[in-house]
Specification:
This protein has 255 residues and is α/β, with parallel strands linked by helices. The chain contains 8 helices and 12 strands. The strands form 3 sheets. It has an 8-stranded mixed β-sheet, sandwiched between helices. A two-stranded antiparallel ribbon has the order 2-3. Strands 9-10 form a two-stranded antiparallel ribbon. Helix 1 packs across helix 8 and helix 2 packs across helix 3.
Length: 255
């Protein structure tokens, strides 16, 4: 397997930093994996899952959303809606390179993003989510209450997320609250695979139940047993990737 640089222009005009994990030999299909909130393309789960998928013949693009990792832009100016647009831009860039994506995979808030983006990407045949929230505004639970109140009253505040400081503006908070993910899921019209750990302490398992309930068939659910939210154990990331590969095989060309 080999990874190559795959940078492209996002919807906001910023250069977004990507890596394309390519399988040995011909690819069965191409996918995009959207990372979790503030995580980046080089997070453990994102890297392990994309490489595991590539080992099973599925090429995968992982990229940093604007303002994170090697991508341009300012995180303080980003919104969930902007991330969704960047996913669409990623698909267009892959198609232009002769690697049109057929599969979307999203981890945590990235899962919500792929559910929103799929309807705007005609080439997508199937969607998989890992530890995704049903409500986009669920991400605000990660903010300290005092920090969230300061954002509401003063327009912006520095908050600590995953041990790092980030400047967050009210535009992000307002945007997170305005999306109706349930409507998008009901209108997905693609096979959906929901993966979630029953002991996820960050995004509770009830979110998976609500996503699954809102979706039309064909839909599948897989319990990730004792995996944590970030799939920090390699065995959990490899398990998720293997199950996605088997499931997606019904919707991708035969090996």
């Amino acid at each position: 397997m080999a990874a190559e640089v795959f940078d492209f222009e996002g919807a906001g005009g910023y250069r977004l930093s990507g890596r394309l994990e390519q399988p040995d030999g011909a690819a069965r299909g191409w996918a995009i994996l959207a990372h979790c909130f503030t995580c980046g393309k080089d997070s453990l789960a994102t890297t392990r899952i994309t490489r595991a998928l590539a080992s099973h013949g599925i090429g995968v693009l992982r990229f940093d959303f604007a303002g994170l990792g090697g991508s341009g832009g300012d995180f303080a100016n980003t919104t969930f809606a902007a991330d969704v647009k960047d996913l669409v831009a990623a698909g267009q860039a892959m198609a232009a390179a002769g690697k049109e994506p057929a599969l979307l995979i999203g981890h945590s808030l990235g899962g919500a993003a792929v559910l929103m983006a799929a309807g705007e990407m005609p080439s997508i045949r199937a969607v998989a989510t890992i530890a995704a929230p049903f409500d986009v505004a669920h991400v605000l639970h990660q903010f300290d209450p005092a920090g969230l109140e300061k954002i509401e009253t003063q327009g912006e505040a520095e908050v600590h997320l995953a041990g790092r400081p980030f400047l967050v503006r009210k535009s992000f908070v307002d945007d997170a609250r305005r999306h109706d993910l349930g409507v998008r899921i009901a209108a997905l019209h693609r096979p959906l695979f929901v993966l979630h750990g029953p002991h996820d302490a960050t995004v509770g398992i009830d979110n998976a139940a609500r996503i699954f309930g809102a979706a039309k068939h064909p839909k599948s659910f897989l319990s990730l047993d004792d995996a944590d939210h970030l799939l920090t154990r390699k065995v959990d990331a490899d398990y998720a990737a293997a199950m996605i590969t088997v499931w997606a095989g019904r919707y991708l060309p035969a090996a």
